Amino acid sequence: MAGSSGSRKILKNWRGRFYLPGNTWALALSATVWNIGGAMINPYQSIYFSGLGANSVFIGFLLGVNSAVTALMQLVGGYVADAWGRRKVIVIFSFLSAGSAFVFIFVSEPALLMIPIVIGAISGIYGPAFNATLTDSMEPELRARGLVSFTLVTSLPSIFFPYVGGTLMQTLGTLEGLRIAFFFSGLLGVIGVSYRALTLKETYVGLRGKEKKRIRRLVSDFFTDNLFVLRNATDGAKKLLIYAVLASVGTAMTVPYTSIYLVNIANLPPQFYGLLTNVAGLISVLLLLPAARIIERVGLTKSAVYASLSIPVNQLIFVRAKGTDDFVTWTAIGGASGALLGPSLTALQANLSPQEMRGRIMAMFSVFSLITAVPAQIVGGYLFQTLGPLSPFIASTPIFVLATLILIRIKEPGPRPIEKS
Fold first, then answer.
1. Cβ atoms within 10 Å, residue 117
2. Which domains are assigned to the chain?
3. In the 3-class helix/strand/coil scheme, how is 212-270 assigned residue by residue?
4. pTM for the whole thing?
5. What is the pLDDT of residue 398?
6. 360 in Cβ contact with 82 (< 8 Å)
7. In Å, how far are 22, 139, 355 from 420, measured between CA atoms?
8. What's the pLDDT score for residue 9?
9. Angle subtended by helix axes 56-84 and 218-231, to nearest 10
């Protein structure tokens, strides 16, 4: 009896920390299925490009094109999400994004990679609507917990699938193995998005009447409207935007070349690199619920600062890594940092944004980060090829330090009333 009572108490406490209200389940379950396929291919995408004959500079150019097109689409997407509502744009462009994975299968030379990359970037128009729908459905004071719960549900089933992708690549070869991974990514994406289309409900109907007519002048108006939103954003939102831009520069210089360095230069077997990715995902997921408690106790800003401080330290560990133990340490710190940083930053973005502007303001974070990522990705590829494979990681470290200094200056947003659509 005592054991049964203890089990019920543990289950009750777990449920108390878990928060995914109503409409968020449609987004969570569809993303869960889709992420399983994506986890098989995402860690190895740059290796696939390299296997087709692309050098690091051209890989940086391809990713720069992706960032530039996605930035434009996110800007339009934020405007559309606040003007026309969220659901329709999410459903239509989710299907386009899932379908782009199939195109990679038929690419036979580097130049043709531009086709699926541009298709995938165009589909990014639904991103602001997705983020706004997710946060619309949560009470402001519980958003950090809700975002942690969302990440837990969507990440846990896919944790070990990077290892599957690495195994395919190691047993069938880089190109053939990853083409199979792209197929499963597209298939599971279509299945997940189909469930999303059937179950997702609208959370914000957009503008009406006279304002609705004005929205039809989308091409001529949305730049002016977004500039108005940017000028009228809170001081905290503007500082958070600066942080996001700086962090994006550091990330764009390094992430595309991490897998190439580890597999092609450090000579880690693809399966082992997949295992490292699994470890990072597992640590991140296991720490999500404790991270939610930390965020609620110390606040959103302090939580983001603590996590951000670990990033430059982790870059130095990567640069000085001499063996397996060092790479495992780098992986563990990265997973722990991600568990705390992601939910706190997203909750900060939402809490600093009024609902009627949330789609556009949250789009700003993506847009400016993507725009600055364009030259950073190209510069990272150039440094990788000319000054040595570790040079992008060294150059990014002071940028992450500067970003953290900006983050420290953001004041915690005060409590907001519960929002109702």
1. 22
2. 19-201+225-408 (1.20.1250.20)
3. HHHHCCHHHHHHHHHHHHHHCCCHHHHHHHHHHHHHHHHHHHHHHHHHHHHHHHCCCCH
4. 0.69
5. 94
6. yes
7. 13, 9, 9
8. 42
9. 90
